[in-house]
Amino acid sequence: AIILQRLDNQQINPSLKKALQTTDAEFKRQLYMFQRHRLNEVKARKGVNYDKASPEHEALLMRLWSATFPDVKLEARVSEQWKLIGFQGTDPATDFRGMGIVGLENLLYFAENHGEVFRKIVSTNLARKEREYPVASAGINLSQMLFDLLKVMENESTSSSSSANDHHLFPLLFSHRFAFEEMYGTAFQVLDYTWDDMNASYMDFPRVIAAVKKQIAEVLAASPLSLDQFHSAACSKGRGTIGEDEADAGEPESIKRLRSHVKKEILDLIKTQKLAYLQDGQFFKYLRPSQSKDKKSGTAFVFMKLVDQDLMYAAVSDSSEKPPNSSLTPLKIAEAIGIATGTDIPSFNKKKVSEDIVALAFAILMRDEKTSLELLAQSRDDFVNWTDGLRAVQGKQMETPETQEELKTLITLDMKVRLLDLEGIDNLPRDTLPVPPPPPDFAFVEQEPSLSKAVDK
């Protein structure tokens, strides 16, 4: 654990992540063993039983309460209040028997590092009343689910002696020091909205967990390269994703073709809008400048705009006035290897960052790491338009939930207009109406009224 921590401090994960495409069988095996050591940290914690006599364990439990209900006092160590978080009884210690201390640690990580999301899950669940599910117990089940999907309990001696082709690498495990815990938080959010999508009640819990496991397994099978990609794919899967067919399996082929055509049109429209946003330019706060010469005293902002498929930028002291084009420095977007967001930003791997910053931060990763830019958008709209706009410039899929929801909504509206959605209108004839007989002749002449009739009127 100490060695892994020191390697993390040296930011080894980004370097190892770049090496995942290696064809060297021995090096791939070494990468796999590093992954195993990382998972073994979590595995070891499962073997530690929760001990009520341990001050360390009890302190973790109290921290969970404080993170969940910061303004509510816990009246007693054994209390009915624990059921508000979703423990089965009045003493949470009994719920941790299956997963050991890791069941509590996963809950605590989510509650402390993504507190707003966790507290919303708890409060929303309490509002479900007769349809609520045991949140804390569900979290313990999710820990076990990830153990299964990531093969955490796999025998190490067997895995080390197997062939290189058997070494399944999960790129996102090389994205963050606490990748397992970040995946856990995503899985929790998937479970929460799946509960409502399935209109589930307590007796449906096994069915919901099975659906979540299937969904997460499908996302992992696609080998997402980052935690951000994993979160985006997992939270949008089943709710309409970019490029995913919204139609029912029973739709006629003509409707499917129309939907595909509409989707392409709207996707092109969204891309055009985002590119126009990039061409207008925007100010961002520096998180880390691309070159040391940019980090002059007072250069807290960077102005950036898209000019002829190239990014142009300039370091500025304030965001009151756009700099002239002559002062902008080119940043070749063709040399960018990707757009990182949230906890996938390299400098976030070794420090704790507030949720507000994580939600608005992004990085333009260049082949030469010294020229990479880490920026902070000043609003969520700027973040969405620029991150997805840059992906569009690179010919990649736009990933933010806002863009996905926009695409889904526009496709639905367009299809309803084109198909004249008549849902809710009663007494529509099922058969084609008969064509009326033709008129006796086609001598359609409009006679003007006589003058006397016109005067009378």
Description:
The model is unreliable at 239-249 and 291-298 (pLDDT under 50). The termini are far apart. The chain has 457 residues and is α+β, with helices and mostly antiparallel strands. The longest helix has 28 residues, at 253-280. It is built from 17 helices and seven strands. Helix 6 (101-113) crosses helix 8 and helix 10 (179-197) packs parallel to helix 12 (227-236). A seven-stranded antiparallel β-sheet has the order 4-3-2-1-7-6-5. A hairpin with a 6-residue loop joins strand 6 (361-366) and strand 7 (373-376).
How much helix is in the residues?
Answer: 40-55%
* Helix/strand order: HHHHHHHHHHHHHEEEEEHEEHHH
Instruction: Give the low-confidence spans.
Output: 239-249, 291-298
- Globally, the shape reads globular
Q: Would you report the number of β strands? A: 7
Beta content:
5-15%
Cα distance, first to last residue?
Answer: 100 Å
Using only C-alpha atoms, the radius of gyration works out to 29 Å
Number of DSSP helical runs = 17
Structural class: alpha+beta
Strand order of the main beta sheet, please?
A: 4-3-2-1-7-6-5
How would a textbook summarize the main sheet?
7 strands, antiparallel
**Rounded average pLDDT:** 80
